[in-house]
Design brief:
- 59% of the residues are buried.
- The protein contains 25 helices and 26 strands.
- Strand 6, helix 3 and strand 7 form a beta-alpha-beta unit.
- The protein folds into four domains: 49 residues, Phosphorylase Kinase, domain 1 (2-Layer Sandwich); 257 residues, Rossmann fold; 201 residues, Dimethylsulfoxide Reductase, domain 2, CATH 3.40.228.10; 117 residues, Barwin-like endoglucanases (Beta Barrel).
- It is 32% helix and 17% strand.
- The strands form six sheets. The chain has a seven-stranded mixed beta sheet, sandwiched between helices. The chain has a six-stranded mixed barrel with strand order 21-25-22-24-23-26. It has a five-stranded parallel beta sheet with strand order 10-9-8-12-13.
- Bound molecules: iron/sulfur cluster.
Length: 702
């Protein structure tokens, strides 16, 4: 897909839609357009993607390793990392070392990091910022399907009769998928659209029905739908009998329909709730798309299973235009799941059952590998704070900003015995605490693969030279592993060799036990890898390429005992967060249209900064009046955890009693406006995903 020397086909580094791009270079100028041949976007782009060319300048790049605050070289830096990791591990055991990685990593870097930690160092203390993104979806999939498998593709969204968006501002957060959805609705023949969101977002404003549900009440809504389906003879009994178990228990947990009482608990009218239920029951093909509004919750996994339950009970899964569809926030959240980048996964979609541990150990060739799950993100940093984890390597992420309890995270980083940070810029909030800073390659310089929300593996190709001493992350990991005596296991010639090993592991003694099997790609030569077209797993019979995702559960067979999916009994309790007289507003956090994460890239594009030039708190006019707050003035937001100062904006998109603030601003841009400083880190008990959508706060003039 490379035309001449000037045009490169690659993949967008932002959201989980995973759009294909064509990048042209004219001297120092870089022009980015949508790749018409890429199945995810067919040439479409959003504002962030189209401004990528404005973000590749080299100013403020980290161009050389820094050791103890002094510019250094790779040999010195890697010697130091290897020596400290080896010493800490020898003295305090494998549990005293850890890595915290990122959905921004390419699959090859992710694979190397996971093999280093769970293999070479036999420590499962490697987690990822994807814990903040979709860990509840992973846990929900495993409870229902026996495996973390997303059963939908983007063309299912277009083929549905009804699309339900839950906790997803698709128009801003996954814009090209939203464009595809709206294009399919243009002539009036496409899917109806129902949006469940406490805010009247840009997406909700375009919906046929917007249910402005109370924060955290999604389980109540979907348990009510399950009860409605049962009461209105809309359970697909043959499907349930043949392919599922647990319906009776799930119905008992869902409780009586009682529309008026249920609607009251959800904060919507009984008529609107009934309209939604009727629409669902009357639509043959339904896709329920869910995102961070569902996952980033202290009850996120139960919400996910309440959604999956209604699809299983009504047989709306495993066929075109049907299914529960978790869409990921980051470009390679799915690739991280494939390699086992979560602390509770081992590798290649295997968990820590004894057979899997032995299988992976034999494949990797180590005497021992990690045999039990490690610490999940929030717990991992708590362990750093307690001094139990003494050596930590942070790669491609900024936990001092993005994690809840950000002040505690900073205190933990400050007292960590040995902290390594791999970054592209030197001045992130997390990098400030590093003993060793390692210069990483950025998008456009690094080379590998990513997997998007519909299980589509695409190549990210380099079109810029590596600046200064910057290197791929996998090379930094291999360099440390070599120095620690694990050289032969990390002796890769390039990213193609890592990908082949990753593909081979997915097929190793798999025999159809797991859907994630890309073994057919293990035979790719370097040229074949370079030319790899986007492919979706699992591959149809005969191997890749797959033009569209296969209907993964079309045979009604799930990876659970007896092949049956499980309807999980979940009770209807909402989020555990509660307001009171001292903190009367429920704070929600999320993305803006034109910024990405902690803004290290998007803030470089002047056009993107125009959309929202500063961090603001959005409140309903009635709440501002009641609290005697003046529009556009500075206000202080306080929670039980901390405080943040922002400019107040009045917005009818936010319901009364609620507040919204963006997640993006951090150190170089606005150090006192951190969303993470306000959230207290309530965790979902199944996924370990922290609550970032509901926190009781007060607001006062500054
Ligand atoms: Fe990039 Fe997502 Fe926009 Fe596509 S929709 S161009 S992947 S940010």
């Amino acid at each position: 897909m490379t035309a001449g020397n000037t045009e490169t086909a690659t993949t967008c580094p932002y959201c989980g839609v995973g759009c294909g791009l064509r990048v042209s270079r004219f001297g120092d100028a870089v022009q980015v357009t949508g790749d018409p041949a890429h199945p995810a976007n067919g040439g479409r782009l959003c504002a962030k993607g189209s401004q990528l060319g404005a973000t590749v300048a080299l100013d403020n790049r980290l161009l050389a390793p820094v050791v103890d605050g002094v510019e250094s070289d790779w040999g010195t830096a890697l010697d130091r990392v290897a020596e400290r990791f080896a010493a800490v591990r020898a003295e305090h055991g494998p549990g005293s070392v850890a890595m915290y990685v990122s959905g921004q990593l390419l699959t090859e870097d992710y694979y190397a990091a996971n093999k280093f930690m769970k293999g070479a160092l036999a420590s499962a203390n490697i987690d990822t910022n994807s814990r903040l993104c979709m860990a509840s979806a992973v846990a929900g999939h495993k409870r229902a399907f026996g495996e973390d498998t997303v059963p939908c593709g983007y063309d299912d969204v277009e083929a549905a009769d009804l699309v339900v968006l839950v906790g997803s501002n698709l128009a801003w957060c996954h814009p090209v998928l939203y464009q595809r959805l709206q294009a399919s609705r243009e002539d009036g023949a496409g899917p109806m659209l129902v949006v469940l969101d406490p805010r009247r977002t840009a997406t909700a404003a375009e919906a046929d029905l917007h249910l402005a549900v109370s924060p955290g009440s999604d389980t109540t809504v979907f348990n009510g739908l399950l009860a409605w389906l049962a009461e209105h003879d809309s359970i697909d009994q043959p499907y349930v009998d043949a392919h599922t178990e647990g319906l009776d228990d799930a119905l008992a947990a869902a409780g009586p329909l009682d529309l008026a009482e249920r609607a009251g608990r959800c904060g919507v009218s009984a008529a609107d709730l009934a309209s939604f239920y009727r629409l669902f029951a009357d639509s043959d093909r339904v896709v329920t798309v869910f995102s961070q509004g569902v996952n980033q919750s202290s009850v996120g996994t139960d919400k996910v299973n309440a959604i999956i339950n209604v699809h299983l009970a009504s047989g709306r899964i495993g066929r075109k235009g049907c299914g529960p569809f978790s869409i990921t926030g980051q470009p390679n959240a799915m690739g991280g799941r494939e390699v086992g980048g979560l602390a509770n996964q081992l590798a290649a979609h295997m968990d820590f059952e004894a057979d899997n541990v032995d299988r992976v150990r034999r494949f990797w060739g180590f005497g021992a590998v990690a045999g039990a799950p490690g610490l999940k993100a929030v717990d991992l940093f708590e362990a750093v704070g307690r001094g139990e984890i003494k050596a930590l390597w942070v790669m491609g992420t900024n936990p001092a900003v993005s994690l809840p309890r950000s002040q505690r995270v900073r205190e933990a980083l400050a007292q960590c015995e040995f902290l390594v940070v791999s970054e592209v810029v030197p001045d992130t909030d997390t990098a400030a605490f590093a003993d060793v800073l390692l210069p990483a390659l950025a998008w456009g310089e690094k080379d590998g693969t990513v997997t998007n929300s519909e299980r589509r593996i695409s190549r990210q190709r380099a079109f810029l030279p590596a600046p200064g001493q910057a290197r791929p992350d996998w090379q930094a990991i291999a360099g440390v592993a070599r120095r620690m005596g694990f050289g032969p296991s990390f002796d890769w010639a390039g990213s193609a060799a890592i990908f082949r090993e990753h593909a081979a592991l997915s097929a190793f003694e798999n025999n159809g036990a797991r859907d994630f099997d890309i073994g057919a790609l293990a035979a790719l030569g370097d040229d074949g890898y370079d030319a790899l077209e986007p492919v979706c797993w699992p591959f149809p019979e005969g191997g890749p390429p797959a033009a569209r995702p296969v209907d993964i559960f079309a045979d009604g067979q799930f990876r659970r005992p007896g092949g049956r999916a499980r309807l999980v009994a979940v009770n209807s309790a909402g989020t555990r967060a509660a307001t009171d007289t001292t903190r009367p507003l429920m704070l929600n956090s999320g993305r803006l249209r034109d910024q990405w994460h902690t803004m290290t890239r998007t803030a470089r594009a002047p056009r993107l900064n125009r959309h929202a030039p500063e961090p603001c708190l959005y409140l309903h006019r009635a709440d501002a009046r009641r609290l005697r707050l003046v529009a556009d003035s500075l206000v202080r937001v306080r929670s039980c955890e901390g405080q943040a100062d922002l400019r107040l904006k009045l917005s009818s998109s936010v319901g009364q009693g609620q507040a919204f603030m963006p997640m993006h601003w951090s150190g170089p841009y606005a150090s006192s406006a951190l969303a993470g400083s306000l959230f207290a880190g309530a965790l979902d008990p199944h996924s370990g995903q922290p609550e970032l959508k509901a926190q009781a706060v007060s607001v006062e003039p500054l």
